[in-house]
Amino acid sequence: MKKKTHLLFILFIILLAGCQDKSYQPVKEGQEFAATLNLGEFSIDFLNKKGEVFGHWELHKAYTGARLLPDGDTLLLFGPELEEVDFYSLKTGKLKRSFKTGKGIVNGVYLKNNLGFAFADKESNAVRFFNKNGEEIKSVKTKPYPLEMETDGQYLYVASFKGKALAFINLDDYSIESELSIPASSTGMLLRSKESELWIGGHGEGTKPQSFIAVYSLKTQALKEQIPAPLMPVDFYENNYGLYALSHGTNMLYRFDFDKKLKAQVEVGANPFAVSSFSGKMIVAGFDSNEVYWIDPETLEIEGKTKVGKGPFGIFTREKVE
């Protein structure tokens, strides 16, 4: 009898341990980093200014997206096959809270003015709004597969990957104020609030890969111009040196000046999907090469490489917490 009780106690402890939320290696407050979300093995690598990996998280869920919130500590993680979105503290490595959402979440945006979050749900074809307590307050139907989202505080701009539509959602009343027709399979978005324009890239449709960046005027809510960027521009960045476009179809990184004239270009990585900036350098994640490339922001000369986990798909950075 005692032996049976002992075995039951051990089983209970094992089950209890399995139910506990997994914690990860803490990242010190003030530690500046660039991090990659790796989809080939579901992990996160943290890199310092020297290009060295100083932290590695083996994720226990199929997270496909990550957003570092403005506090510089809270990391939002989500994925379309998960029933919830999770919020982790970097300084403790522990789960802070979860919002029950059901499956389908492919993107998430923090809404500062509304003190909440917007989540793109490809299963319900809607943008779902939650308050900071995790309560869903509104669901706005969109065209099929809402994916890319950016906000200027007044509007939430939502590009539907399959629906060929760009929705302008007014954040005062959560209504779609207008919709524009955009190319199929649109992905990658850069909001330029001061210039009142939105850059959108994409994969193209069928056998015709997209070879341009579509620039939309936020004032006229119409297509403004198209900038050549072959093939399949999927991510963008802007700094004092100009505007950058990463085209994963040709493994090219382009730098344009503020007149949108091409100034430099370089072939980088193998199947790159993400570009960002860290410690004065441009950084690109090569999905098939499993490397982060460190690039001069003006000349686009590749100055170094860092090996990371399999399939780096997204980049988030922390240099200074506001």
UniProtKB/TrEMBL annotation:
Signal peptide start and end residues: 1-19
Keyword tags: DNA-binding, Signal
A single GO molecular function term of this UniProt record: DNA binding
Claim: DNA-binding is one of the keywords in the record: yes
InterPro entries, per database record: Haem_d1_sf, Host-pathogen_enzymatic-act, WD40/YVTN_repeat-like_dom_sf
Protein name: DNA-binding beta-propeller fold protein YncE
Annotated organism of origin: Siminovitchia thermophila
